UniProtKB/TrEMBL annotation:
Belongs to the thiolase-like superfamily. Thiolase family. Keywords: Acyltransferase, Transferase. Its EC number is 2.3.1.9. Residues 251-372 form the Thiolase C-terminal domain. Pfam families: Thiolase_C, Thiolase_N. The lineage of its organism: Bacteria, Bacillati, Actinomycetota, Actinomycetes, Micromonosporales. The active site is at C88, H329, C359. NCBIfam families: AcCoA-C-Actrans, PRK07801.1. The keyword Magnesium does not apply. Transmembrane segments: none annotated. Residues 4-243 form the Thiolase N-terminal domain. This is Acetyl-CoA acetyltransferase.
Length: 373
């Protein structure tokens, strides 16, 4: 059985302390869920489930925000919701779970999305109260340290792939250039609800300014300029079965061609998209050259540059409208945001296949391949 993407929408991404800072996360997600229902013209009462990715589910993001957001949007009470945490890949995994439910025949219409308000709930809030989350006896016996540090991981990737600071900064500068061009061309306009533009791209950035920033670790190469930006946002997609397409008169925009997740070294953490992409291509029989557009999350510049070297992908097809270094990385929302952008970019460019992947806490990566219809 097939799973189709029939709707995709997102908020503009706001910088920390910016446009969404005062918006309750349930209202932020609720707004995009309501917009999705309005755009697809689907009776929200026909939805079987709502699956929302969110990281740091404490405070205003606690209590199953998928359910809270749906209800906050005024949508039907009989529709359930569940919240997913696969760290940065949470809402990409939400899409996977939605597609798997449809493919299995146990659901016909599933909403998949993500939300994160990092202005209200600071990064790693869920990990802070009780000390290191990786100090279990079995973990310590295996990995010898509870110090899992994403900045150390970013520096280690740069060192292993011989990526110098200037190369990282060139990549980051290009991300801003591409995002600013997309904003100027109104490229994102059709995929955003609420009438606002993405807030994070830095119009005043330059290679000179980047070169003057301190590194995030002594002796490292990673700076704030070559890391993704803390941000707020939400995104959602509607996944439908063949039966739902017929019953509701829907237009399939893309077919889920492949979905998978793979694990890698949890201490290095950020390199998992490399083996995950290789696995996905093996499973599908596609080559890297068959893919027309890629969205590879820019958690750090080195993540994408190392992935490019190992996969041989054409850089001109990767993150063509910029990525999280410029556009921001609202953790639980980014997976769905990337999927919304990937779908719209395939439609703009006329491409057939799009591949999305992102590094995730615990040394994991999801890969989704969609086929535009």
């Amino acid at each position: 059985m097939e799973a189709y993407l029939v709707g995709a929408v997102r908020t503009a991404v706001g910088r920390r302390g910016g446009m969404h800072a005062a918006t309750h996360p349930a209202d932020l997600a609720g707004g995009v869920l309501k917009a999705l229902m309005e755009r697809t013209r689907v009776d929200p009462g026909a939805v079987d489930d709502v699956i929302v990715g969110c990281v740091d589910t404490v405070g205003p993001q606690s209590g199953d925000i998928a359910r809270t957001a749906w209800l906050a949007a005024g949508l039907p009470e009989h529709v359930p919701g569940v919240t997913v945490d696969r760290q940065c890949g949470s809402s990409q995994q939400a899409v996977h779970f939605a597609a798997q439910a449809v493919m299995s025949g146990t659901a016909d219409l599933v909403v998949a999305g993500g939300v994160q308000n990092m202005s209200q709930v600071p990064i790693s809030s869920a990990m802070a109260p009780a000390g290191p989350y990786v100090n279990a006896e079995g973990w310590m016996n295996r990995y010898k340290s509870a110090n899992v540090d994403q900045f150390a991981s970013a520096d280690e990737i740069a060192a292993r792939w011989s990526l110098g600071r200037e190369e990282l900064e060139r990549y980051a500068f290009l991300s801003h250039e591409k995002s600013l061009k997309a904003l100027a061309n109104r490229t994102f306009g059709v995929e955003i609800c609420g009438g606002r533009d993405d807030e994070c791209p830095r119009r005043d950035t330059s290679m000179e300014k980047m070169s003057g920033l301190p590194t995030l670790r002594d002796g490292g190469t990673t700076t704030a300029a070559t890391a993704s930006q803390i941000a707020d946002g939400a995104a959602a997609l509607l996944v439908a079965s063949e039966q739902a397409v017929r019953d509701h008169g829907l237009r399939p925009r893309a077919r889920i061609h492949h979905l998978s997740a793979r694990g890698d070294d949890p201490v290095l953490m950020l390199a998992a998209p490399i083996p995950a992409t290789a696995h996905a291509l093996r499973r599908t029989g596609l080559t890297i050259g068959d893919i027309d557009r890629f969205e590879v999350n820019e958690a750090f510049a080195g993540v994408v540059l190392a992935w490019l070297r190992e996969t041989g992908a054409d850089p001109a097809r990767v993150n063509v409208n910029g990525g999280a270094i410029a556009l921001g990385h609202p953790l639980g929302a980014t997976g769905a945001r990337l999927m919304v952008t990937l779908l719209h970019e395939l439609e703009r460019s006329g491409g057939r296949y799009g591949l999305q992947t992102m590094c995730e806490g615990g040394g994991q990566a999801n890969v989704t391949i969609i086929e535009r219809l």
